[in-house]
Amino acid sequence: MSWQISLLVYTALLTVLMVIGVPIAAAMGFVGIVGVTLLSGTQLWPSLADVVWNTANSFTLVAIPLFVLMGEIILRSGAAKRFYRGLAVLLNRIPGGLAQSNIMACALFSAISGSSTATALTIGTVALPEMRQRGYSDKITLGTLTGGGALGNLIPPSIFLLVYATVVQQSPIDLFVATIIPGLIAVVMFMLYVFLRVLLNPSLVPARQPSYSWAEVGNAVLQVAPVTALMLAIICGMYWGIVTPTEAAGFGCLLALLLGLAYRELTRKDLWTAMVNTIAVTCVMSVIVINGQILGFAIVQAGIGHGVSEYLAGSGLSPFVFFVVIFFLYLALGAMLDGISMMLLTVPVLYPTLRAMGFDDIWFGVILVIQAELAQLSPPIGLNLFAVQSVAKNVDLATIAWASLPYALMLSLLCFILFFMPELATWLPMAMRG
Is there a cis peptide before residue 157, judged by omega within 30 degrees of 0? Predict the structure, then answer.
């Protein structure tokens, strides 16, 4: 069976299964098994067990439940609430006030949670009631929460990049380092947008901002310091080679637990809920990754990646045109799939072409994570939209989506900036490797 027929069969079968409502993880695994069977009968079935074992036994992926647990403990320990309120005091004089605090809080909390949805939900739970009470318009508040939450995987460490590193056999630390400059650019873009919008339409924020004494500012620094120190301990430990990402995640869990005990707000029930939620998230993600790897194995065995690479190379597409094609491909897929499923479906097919065209693995990982964040803001599946809606209450999804649109456009612009200036993603990893 030729790679063209295999591609057609896999695509048709996957589309049918998704249309009739089969979960994407089950659909990927089923198509992978069917594909391997069509190619060689049951001869390759034992290899599927190796795929499952090697994926589940990945030391890198062990970091995922630990990072999730760390974020859950921070959320329930009272640290997230103190952190946000302290940050709101420190950023009080910047135009936009609490709206700016949302973006900065999301950026810093992302370094702990590693998840966009968890970031949007955590900061939204604390910020939205406070902002409504002070007179901020939902038109600016909702967008800062969904857009700021979209920094979750772009600011290291990133659960998405841990999975990508496993798929393409790249260093997670190099990928984390590569997102630092693009992540900072995104934060600046978001805060500049809020700054300009508030200047053009002052009615979106309260006419008067509260003033704080030096004692209150000092107290705010003390509220922000523990979570900031936790973040720096994790990131610096990884980047200086003291710990691996998995060890950093375990160390972060310990520090988060000690912080929760110090605040005396983390009850046994809260800790149990955090562990249950961590298990649920990890199980769902593990099923998606394992089934995605099974489908990837079938794609490789059918020669689809190699065939697509040769076809595109022979078509004469320039690197920019190819980039535009995959940008809109991921934009369309992001409206239907979560970021990790989208990546697992496409990377085995596109990876050989990317290498043939000279695109860097690390650079493409940064592009992919931005596209995954765009998926978090894309209705009808965008998880950040639903996370904020669950907190906002009585606000329809369309209103939240419109508020998120400027942030989606800025992330799209960032993708094209990185195409023309790939050094923004590749320079820092190379510099740190010496």
Answer: yes
| Identity of the amino acid at 94 | I
Q: How far apart are CA 76 and CA 61, in angstroms?
A: 24
Q: Which two tokens stand for residue 166?
A: 């496993």
Q: What residues contact residue 13 under an 8 Å CB cut-off, 6+ apart?
A: 30, 31, 34
* Domain ranges within the chain, ordered by starting residue: 3-433
Specify the higher pLDDT residue, 164 or 78: 164
CA 148/CA 188 separation, integer angstroms: 11
pLDDT at 113: 67
Q: What is the C-alpha separation between 366 and 176, in angstroms, rounded?
A: 9
The pTM for the full model equals: 0.84
| Total length of the chain | 434
Q: Which of 281, 272, 54 is nearest to 159 (CA)?
A: 281
CB atoms within 10 A of CB 219: 16
Among 263-267, 310-314, 357-361, the range scoring the smallest mean pLDDT is: 310-314
Helix 180-200 vs helix 423-433: crossing angle, to nearest 10: 140
Contact 335, 372 (CB under 8 A): no
The DSSP code sequence of 302-315 is: HTHHHHHHHHHHHH
Question: Using CA atoms, how far apart are residues 387 and 80, in angstroms rounded to an integer?
Answer: 17
Judge contact between 406 and 147, C-beta under 8 A.
yes
Distance CA 81, CA 370 (A): 27
Q: What is the pLDDT of residue 324?
A: 92
